[in-house]
Specification:
42% of the residues lie in helices and 15% in strands. Helix 1 packs across helix 11. The protein is built from 15 helices and 8 strands. The chain has 2 domains: 209 residues, Endonuclease III, domain 1; 129 residues, Nucleoside Triphosphate Pyrophosphohydrolase, CATH 3.90.79. By secondary structure, the chain is α+β, with helices and mostly antiparallel strands. Bound molecules: iron/sulfur cluster. The site of iron/sulfur cluster has 13 residues, from helix 9 and helix 12.
Length: 361
Amino acid sequence: MQMTDFSKQIVDWFDKNKRELPWRQSADPYIVWLSEVILQQTRVDQGIAYFNRFLEKWPTVDSLAAADEQQVLKMWQGLGYYSRARNLHATAKEVVASYNGLFPTDFNTLKKLKGIGDYTAAAISSIAANQAHAVVDGNVYRVLSRFFGIQLPIDTGPGKRHFQSLADELLLHDDPGNYNQAIMEFGALQCVPANPSCRQCVLQQGCFAHAHGLVDKLPFKSEKTRNRNRFFNYLFIETTMPDGSRGVYLHHRKEKDIWHGLYDFPMIETAAETSFGALCDSMKWRELMDKTPFHLQQSSAVFKHQLTHQTIFAVFYRIQIKPVLNDLFEKNVFLTHRNKLDKYPFPRLIDRFLIDNGIYG
Ligand code: SF4
């Protein structure tokens, strides 16, 4: 099959099968960018709700630039990988400061913006300005590796370069934005990761992986990324506020670690699962609580939370203390009203604990 036949078949398939998605109504680079950043984090069905909420609150790049970072993180809550949300905000500010609020559409200019790499720059420049730059994302790797039978690992430099140059060759230069969307949609709906319906596939006849029984082997990766287990022991410390209402101690995560800029509770990380007694004997407990008298109300079951390369095992200890001076705790820990917890951006794990225990509101 000719390269152009492959590309035309993909576009024909797209014309008949594409989903009506809110961001497809527009070629505004701000809208394309917003949707791309959200979709790098989540599935389309969940992404639609986030996209609509973002656009309703911040309909222009100027309005997003003027937002408070905490509001942006709160809106992003549940998507994970919060550096993307911070980059989103930083980029909006940069567009206002350096480009008069006109979102760039040129590939090379886009790549100078924070958080915008080859993939996002290709998507925006092709969809918003018809520039001929081919996108290569997970969907594209899958479709190309299977159809052309490419067994080069997609997580190595030579593999990435090979796929990019093949994608560039396949790009339809008279309609690059439509072609880019078509091949990604083909990977998302037809050539899916597990058990694609090859019998109903318009590309079945020329597909190498289908002919050679390699569909479940491709794309090929050089090595599995190592996963790290971490054990978090959270202290959900409640007390009475000076005004008599219920208060909770929060921790603002400022360390170089996951969830930077978000909030959780004072926490002791251990090398393995541990008992509450062992926790109380630890140095970190003494640093955190000193000799503050407390009453342990409840210990939670273990919450397992999977991140890209880390598995978090978290236990939450609900503790009551009498009112104490704030400076008893380390500097990023502070007391806040329990009924104001829904104002803070939390990692998904903390959100789950608060929801499961009916603590919000
Ligand atoms: S035949 Fe199967 S593996 Fe090949 S492109 Fe179609 S869905 Fe993908």
